[in-house]
Predict the structure.
Amino acid sequence: LNTILTTLTTHGITTITAQPPTLEQLFMRHYTARPADADRRAAEAAR
């Protein structure tokens, strides 16, 4: 991590801001099925 931060500062980047996901984003990520997830669940259910 130190190497990355040193490299960023040599390129003029002095601040990094990160925001945690909102509650809505967390729920949507959890409850929205992606096609690969749906295929995996269907294969597991068929066993």
Q: What stands out?
A: The first helix runs from residue 2 to 10. The CA atoms of residues 27 and 42 lie 22 Å apart.
